[in-house]
């Protein structure tokens, strides 16, 4: 005896729309053992999609009317905007070497508010730690005298400015810029891969990418997406999503 057909749930209908051949012909699962951002779960090769997260479900609901040709047009427009805005980088770290256009994905990385609050708290905590370390090595040097940091390591570093010891910077802020490379582990937790505290010529790139993606490529989706305004660039804290 065959079972009666079951009507798809809203999430199933959503997934069917997402994986429709006319919309996302290259849709597929993340590699087995990797964290799948679409479903916020560990990918299982060969298994059907679990429910999409609310953020991705909302995003795909807004673009389900778009065709593959529409997405190709958006990708072309994105590449043109990157080129017209002069967003380039030097892969060889040679200022006289060839410049290449900055590579941007058509689809953004969506991070839900709860997850972002966790990342934000961790990043700000690390920034405060680095600020205190800088204030100490250029001030009382308690970390050195009590053996927490090897004096030879600090004083022998080419980036340490001996002439600035004892000089308080304008505004009392030692750390003016910090960047962190994060990666998502199979368990869904974010891990810090590396950090950078030197001023780089490409520091504004994330802001430029944000402007191009949401103001130019996805303008009609911007108002419906609860976006966090990128600000607090020199003041550390960024506003939190309501």
List keywords for this structure.
3 domains, mainly alpha, 6 strands, disordered C terminus, two-stranded antiparallel ribbon, 242 residues, two-stranded antiparallel sheet, elongated
Total strands: the figure is 6
- Summing up helix and strand content along with how strands pair, one would put the structural category as mainly alpha
Question: What is the count of DSSP helices, taking H or I runs of 4+ residues?
Answer: 8
Give the biggest beta sheet. 2 strands, antiparallel
**Total domain units:** 3
Strand content: 5-15%
Kindly provide the radius of gyration, computed on alpha-carbon positions and rounded to a whole number of angstroms: 23 Å
The strand line-up of the biggest sheet is: 1-2
Helix content: 25-40%
Average predicted confidence as pLDDT: 73
N-to-C series of helices and strands: HEEHHEEHHHEEHH
Note the gap between the termini: 52 Å
Shape: elongated
Low-confidence stretches: 1-26, 232-242
Structural topology:
Elements lengths: L9 H9 L16 E2 L4 E2 L11 H10 L4 H17 L3 E2 L10 E2 L11 H25 L4 H4 L5 H5 L23 E6 L5 E7 L8 H13 L1 H4 L20
Antiparallel strand pairs: 1-2, 3-4, 5-6
């Amino acid at each position: 005896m065959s079972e009666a057909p079951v009507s798809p749930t809203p999430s199933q209908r959503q997934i069917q729309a997402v994986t429709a051949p006319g919309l996302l012909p290259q849709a597929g699962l993340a590699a087995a053992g990797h964290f799948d951002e679409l479903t916020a779960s560990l990918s299982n090769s060969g298994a059907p999609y679990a429910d999409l997260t609310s953020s991705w479900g909302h995003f795909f609901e807004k673009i389900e009317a778009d065709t593959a040709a529409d997405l190709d047009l958006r990708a072309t427009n994105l590449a043109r905007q990157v080129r017209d805005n002069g967003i380039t980088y030097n892969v060889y770290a040679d200022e006289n070497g060839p410049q290449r256009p900055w590579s941007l994905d058509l689809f953004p990385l969506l991070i839900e508010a709860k997850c972002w609050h966790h990342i934000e708290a961790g990043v700000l905590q690390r920034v405060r730690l680095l600020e205190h370390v800088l204030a100490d090595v250029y001030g009382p040097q308690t970390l050195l005298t009590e053996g927490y940091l090897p004096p030879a390591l600090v004083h022998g570093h080419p980036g340490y400015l001996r002439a600035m010891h004892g000089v308080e910077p304008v505004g009392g802020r030692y750390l003016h810029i910090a960047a962190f490379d994060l990666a998502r582990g199979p368990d869904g937790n974010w891990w810090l891969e590396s950090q950078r505290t030197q001023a780089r010529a490409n520091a504004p790139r994330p802001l430029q990418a944000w402007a191009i993606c949401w103001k130019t490529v996805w303008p009609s989706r911007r108002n419906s997406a609860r976006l966090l305004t990128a600000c607090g660039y020199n003041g550390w804290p960024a506003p939190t999503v309501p």
